[in-house]
Structure prediction request, 279 residues.
Amino acid sequence: MTKLNVIGCGRVGTTLAALLQREGLCQVQHLYSKTAASAHDAARFIGAGTVVNQLADMQPATVWMLSVPDSQVVTVAQALAALSPMHPQPPVVFHCSGFLSANSLSALQNLGWHAASAHPVLNFANPAQCVNQFQGVPCGLEGDDSATTVLKGLLSGIGGQCFAVSSDDKPLYHAAAVFSSNFMAVLQALAREAWQEAGVPESLIPSIHQSLLQGSVQNLLALGPAKAITGPAARGDTAVVNAQASVITQWHPEAGEIYKRMSVLARRLATTGSTAGSD
Prediction:
């Protein structure tokens, strides 16, 4: 069976390792993390893997997963390369960054390792939930052919829908995920804060929030953004947009700027079907 070493035992690494182990596609061998506690937590959740205290303690494996923060990918790859681990065959190494390309693993590529990046498009908030949500999750793959072929087999085997992403397009690709997921949380926070400032009873805010959010998501999935967009900007009600922008700016200047910019894009989307272009 394919032996898997995991460096970085956060939510992404723990989820993927657990799924690969449970589906019998990999044998999780060694786990290494910044803190031993997180590695031990991962081992318990995965149900396999030996926790090591330093990189040098990790034995050769067929596949290495670097599920560390983006800022640490290059550093960890260099540290691993400096150990010059011996392998009967060049292993596959991949990181889980949606932004960085496989070239960030060049220190290992220079040793003959096959390198790739794999980015499952899922909100990894909780491994216990994520292992049950992974079926059908799109997984962006980028890197050399040997590595991406191996990863396609592994990730498809745990339910992922793999697709290719070019190295040059990774920053824009990842930005799309940020718009779709991360910024949604920011917008929802602004809405809650505005309702509080407007004096809406605290007990009613969750139900208002849930009603609007669920309806919006359902419409977006069923109709697409251009047909689902509503509101004063989409209708072209400039007077309301300007008055509202003024009030929001007095309350929260940064939110006011966001409101004005988003209103321009909302109107464009409603009239042309796209946010791009000029008015």
User: Anything to note?
Assistant: The mean pLDDT is 94. The chain has two domains: 2-165, 172-272.
